[in-house]
Amino acid sequence: MAFIFYDTETTGADRSFDQILQFAAVLTDDDLNVIDSFEIRSRLLPHIVPSPGAMMVTGVSVEQLFDPALPSHFEMCRKIHEVMTSWSPATVVGYNSISFDEEMLRGAFYTSLLPVYLTNTSGNSRLDILPLMIATQTFAPDAFQWPVNEKGRVSFKLDRLAPANGFDHSDAHDALADVHATIHLARLVRARAPVIWQSAMAYRTKALATEYVEDRSAFVATLLRFGLCAPSLVTALGLNPENSSELFTLDLRQDPALLAAMTADELATHIKSKPRPVSSFKLNACPLLLPMEVAGSKATGYELGLEEITRRAEKVRADESLRNRLIEAIASSRAPFPESPHVEEQIYGGFYSRSDQSLIDEFREAGWPRRLELSGQFDDRRLRRLSRRIIYFDAPHVMPAKMRADYAHAIAVRIHSRTDRSGRWTTLDEAIEDAHELLNDVSPDREAILREHLARLTAWREEAGLILHGPNTSEKT
Length: 477
Description:
Strand order of the largest sheet: 3-2-1-4-5
Number of strands: 10
Low-confidence stretches: none
Structural class: alpha+beta
Oligomer: single chain
Helix content: 40-55%
Number of domains: 3
CATH class of the largest domain: Alpha Beta
Strand content: 5-15%
CATH architecture of the largest domain: 2-Layer Sandwich
Number of helices: 20
CATH topology of the largest domain: Nucleotidyltransferase, domain 5
Order of helices and strands: EEEHHHEHEHHHHHEEEHHEEHHHHHHHHH
CATH superfamily of the largest domain: Ribonuclease H-like superfamily/Ribonuclease H
Largest sheet: 5 strands, mixed
Distance between the termini: 41 Å
């Protein structure tokens, strides 16, 4: 199967309230030979204030942010989806992608009314090279040179790890350069730590991972905690009843006989103890699972001996009541997440109806005047808000003057300064304050670009302030 390596450069680190500015992807064959590549940038969305710190890292200038020759965010997302679909099926690979780039990409597709789950549907699977590097440092430490950060700990940052192992990464934090750095590390893992690579390949789909945990009474789950590999001998308890992709596992240092004797209250207290008796991982997020004999003494619980580990695992597998009680205890200990009032954070708020999906399909192919008509026909409130936001961003001329004015005012309210209703997004006040702080310690080669951003942010705040002097309207963004 082919691989799609990809990377994003963004306005900041918030997965819900920042945007992708640059996307790059490289298609390789099964032997990691490059077949094709793709790169695209977009201009800044009008309701997003870029983090000055992020702009210093990526080197994106004000001119690039507002370049009218660049595609809009909506146009960029449509092109990304088109290219990745044409390259599918494949294994979609990034560096720290499962927790960041993946969510950024899903959010971009969601706000552009595109299918969200492209990377793990239609035959596609996912792989993240960062967890492989962390596991390699534990199980095959001699396979790589491991750079050390200012705190004396191994640094797994791509811009440090790739150069330490022979990659010229002088243009780090450019999306395409970071993609090639990721491919370089993937090739090294495959060559120098084949057990790690083969394990990742073997369980990169939900179906394969599910089959593995069902067939083995005990196995090693290489859980990641605080940037370190924490391999543990575990047995599967069962799936989260609220999420069929999440598997609960029991640390086999726990004696099942003692657990079975506990009351419900005792069990509820015990599962909160440390180290956590019950952990979980996502079966559809390429978990790194290893046989007991491979992990050896580096896995916690190994000191009990394989015979005792196997005995405990079999006892748990035979006791359905205990497994159900443990799952209920851990599930009930989790506080429910209230629905966010912000449409960006409602991405997992349920699937669209069949009628709304038909309207989405028509929206994608329609002209802007027709899109405005369709925006009012969606049943799902998210779709009404997102579709009209797209229209305002890309074709405000088709909107009535009052609607345009309302959106302009709502954006000014949102980005000018922090309020009680604000989300986590960066405001102009905050960005200007951050830029002034950065000036105290900016490198000479970045000072000019930082001052340029500060000047633009200051002018932007003045523009937003002028809009806010008008009549108040309800927030629509």
